[in-house]
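Methods — Computational structure assignment.
A single polypeptide chain was analysed. Its primary sequence is given first, followed by the predicted tertiary structure written as structure tokens.
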Amino acid sequence: MSREKAGYRDTIEQLNAMFPDCGMLNQAQVARFLGVTRQTAAKKIRFNPATARVTKADLARQVCL
């Protein structure tokens, strides 16, 4: 059984506070959350290629490496 990465729950809480009504985030929302440009967010975060979005849980996993 895998363990949660350090800071995962804190990141999920921050995402839920910033985007309470969204399940999946687009590049602009991710960039705003991370404090980077949309281009940087697109390079650093793996988005779903079909929808160009990422779930909050997946973003939290990617941020908490």
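Note: The CA atoms of residues 18 and 33 lie 8 Å apart.
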